[in-house]
């Protein structure tokens, strides 16, 4: 079948879960026992070339039941679309998905349905980049400013950034794109690591991993805080002693505190010279973040991984509530909405340091930061992408870290495809791992009956 007549024929969903809670990987004050999971989908076509679009959104376990159902609810908008048209204009699908009034009612533009939209939209971008033979960051960086602006929904944010503003930002970087790409391919993009900092880790593991991070070239680590103040003071002291004065230590409360408590807690941890406090309070509390920012300076305030959409980011920026903006590749409505958020951050001059970790979030978000460097901001100053060192082996094109930097992907696509054997093993509940796990538990229950 010709490329011009081929259509999307299927949206296939998978509930993929990893048992990370058993080693406390990913544990924090708000989420003590996460099983890192992906509500995963594959777009298939009748083009005959075998090229597929892969996408997912991240959950921490049982939420996959709901998230997979939400993705399935969007299937009617996707199946039957012409491949050439949807890959040439992913924004058209984004607008249709957001515009389904009966599903929009469940948000609007927030929560489970919006994350499902993001997963589907990201799968289309993966398909488009593969068909173009480019990694996603380069597909975006090579695009014209006019086309990129056409992919952004400016509704609700044009009081902060207009299409003309966005065009001006992108055109201002046009002459620097070639040099930016050269630097990116040569040097990579700076990373920081959260791997030493999970709240369930013993002190000796924290210290060992912090020292290893410095040896691997990371200039920043992050610790989870917020469960017990005395414990946090001790752990921050140990981390500071392990990494020395020249390495930044970020701290992350995962929304655990109210405004007053956040100010008091950060004040108590100030002796360890934290660089930023992440998610100090509810992600919906714009004015609360602004109050915390004023009170804890010079410690910076960072948030965004749970911000629902571009409108929340707009308000965080307008209220001068954050020093660091943290996009998430799978929380908002996919690449299109993240383009809007990156442009907003550039307009307000606030650095973007994405949230990653999870299942595949590092793989995805590296592309967005690299595009931002090449085509929008032109700088990596005070900008780092989060990195954790687990679950990458399950991906066909996993992230590659060299001397504390993400190496720019060169394979076509969004780096979203999981290995078939990983899908077969960890699909819940019938995959090989979970079926064996159930059999073991049933056997143990029989022995104790």
């Amino acid at each position: 079948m010709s490329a011009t007549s081929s259509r999307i024929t299927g949206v296939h969903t998978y509930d993929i879960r990893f048992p990370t809670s058993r080693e406390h990987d990913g544990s924090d004050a708000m989420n003590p026992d996460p099983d890192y999971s992906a509500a995963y989908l594959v777009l298939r076509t009748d083009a005959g070339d075998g090229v597929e679009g892969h996408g997912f959104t991240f959950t921490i376990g049982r939420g996959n039941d709901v998230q997979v159902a939400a993705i399935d609810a969007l299937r009617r908008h996707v199946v039957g679309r012409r491949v050439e048209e949807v890959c040439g204009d992913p924004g058209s699908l984004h607008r249709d998905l957001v515009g389904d009034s009966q599903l929009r009612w469940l948000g609007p533009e927030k929560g489970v349905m919006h994350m499902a939209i993001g997963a589907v939209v990201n799968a289309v971008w993966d398909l488009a980049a593969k068909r173009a033979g480019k990694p996603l960051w380069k597909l975006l960086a090579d695009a014209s400013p006019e086309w990129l602006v056409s992919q952004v929904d400016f509704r609700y944010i044009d009081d902060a950034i207009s299409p003309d503003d966005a065009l001006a930002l992108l055109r201002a970087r046009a002459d620097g794109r070639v040099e930016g790409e050269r630097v990116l391919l040569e040097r990579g993009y700076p990373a920081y690591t959260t791997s030493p900092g999970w709240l369930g880790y013993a002190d000796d593991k924290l210290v060992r991993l912090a020292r290893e991070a410095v040896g691997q070239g990371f200039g920043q680590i992050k610790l989870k805080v917020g469960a017990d103040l005395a414990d946090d003071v001790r752990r921050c002291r140990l981390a500071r002693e392990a990494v020395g004065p020249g390495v930044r230590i970020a701290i992350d409360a995962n929304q655990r505190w109210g405004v007053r408590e956040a100010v008091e807690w950060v004040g108590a941890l100030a002796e360890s010279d934290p660089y930023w406090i992440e998610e100090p309070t509810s992600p919906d509390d714009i004015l609360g973040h602004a109050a915390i920012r004023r009170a804890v300076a010079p410690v910076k305030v960072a948030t965004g991984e749970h911000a629902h959409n571009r409108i929340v980011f707009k308000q965080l920026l307008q209220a001068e509530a954050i020093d660091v903006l943290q996009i998430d590749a799978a929380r908002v409505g996919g690449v299109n909405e993240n383009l809007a958020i990156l442009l907003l951050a550039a307009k307000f001059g606030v650095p973007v340091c994405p949230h990653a970790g999870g299942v595949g979030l590092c793989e995805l978000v590296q592309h967005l930061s690299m595009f931002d460097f090449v085509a929008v901001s032109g700088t990596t100053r005070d900008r780092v992408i989060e990195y954790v060192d687990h679950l990458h082996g399950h991906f066909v094109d996993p992230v590659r870290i060299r001397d504390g930097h993400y190496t720019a992907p060169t394979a076509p696509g969004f780096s979203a495809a999981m290995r078939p054997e990983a899908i077969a093993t960890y699909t819940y509940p019938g995959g090989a791992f979970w079926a064996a796990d159930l059999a073991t538990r049933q056997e143990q229950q029989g022995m104790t009956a």
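The radius of gyration is 21 Å. The chain has a mean pLDDT of 96.
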